[in-house]
Design goal:
The chain is mainly alpha-helical and about 220 residues long. The protein has three domains: about 1-50; about 65-165, no CATH class; about 185-215, no CATH class. Helix content is about 60%, strand content about 0%. The chain contains seven helices and no strands. The protein has helices spanning about 1-50, 55-65, 80-95, 100-120, 125-145, 155-165, 210-215. Helix 3 (about 80-95) runs parallel beside helix 5 (about 125-145) and helix 4 (about 100-120) runs antiparallel to helix 5 (about 125-145). The longest helix has about 50 residues, at about 1-50. Residues about 195-210 have low confidence and may be disordered.
């Protein structure tokens, strides 16, 4: 019996060590979780401190204020490949509508040009709008001239048609208004109500008659 007890003692000690190791692992995992939560909270406070003044209006204003020679698309300038692709689509559609009524062609071109302006008519992109309209008019003129070898479609006539139907380039999305700046009140400023002048740095509350009248003795 004595040997049996001695044989069972190491097994008991190993079980106690395992239980202690598991407890230490739980404490370590809990400690790591707490550290991560503290770090996350600290990062949130840093973000709030650094980005409290950033709003959509300031981002939009900074976006429009980029240099004109910046990369296409970054400063809201129309990309040449996309403009060329759109002009190619218009040219092919005009070829398909070549023998249709001029009024139907004009109505369709009006919608196509207006849709292009609706997206691209932003500040610093006026030249691209004018160039796009010019090339559309040129494609329209060439298409009408292909109706017959002696079709009298001159630049004067196509210009009049374009002025009657096609929208002219203009900025549809102006710059955002600058955000309101925080103003520091000046000493001696006067508010709307006399009882609130102390908030603007003016006379003290004790100089207001209503504040002295009910003053406890």
């Amino acid at each position: 019996m004595k040997r049996a007890n001695e044989a069972g003692q190491p097994a008991k000690e190993s079980a106690e060590r395992r239980a202690g190791a598991e407890g230490n692992a739980d404490q370590r995992s809990t400690h790591r979780t707490q550290i991560r939560a503290r770090v996350t909270q600290a990062l949130d406070r840093v973000r709030q401190a650094l980005l409290h003044h950033v709003n959509p209006d300031t981002l939009r204003t900074a976006f429009y204020a980029l240099k004109r020679k910046a990369a296409p698309g970054a400063d809201r300038k129309s990309r040449r490949d996309r403009v060329r692709a759109k002009l190619k689509e218009i040219k092919e559609e005009l070829r398909r509508r070549m023998h249709g009524p001029v009024r139907e062609q004009a109505e369709w071109l009006k919608q196509a040009v207006a849709g292009f302006f609706q997206y691209h008519a932003v500040p610093t992109n006026g030249r691209a709008l004018a160039a796009f309209r010019y090339h559309v008019i040129d494609h329209w003129r060439r298409t009408l001239r292909r109706r017959g070898q002696k079709h009298p479609m001159t630049w004067a006539r196509i210009g009049k048609l374009a002025d009657d139907w096609l929208p002219k380039p203009r900025i549809l999305h102006p710059l955002a208004k600058p955000a309101l700046r925080r103003q520091t009140p000046k000493v001696g400023a006067v508010c709307g109500k006399a009882a609130r002048t102390v908030l603007c740095g003016g006379r003290s509350v004790m100089s207001v008659p209503t504040a002295i009248r009910n003053r406890p003795e």
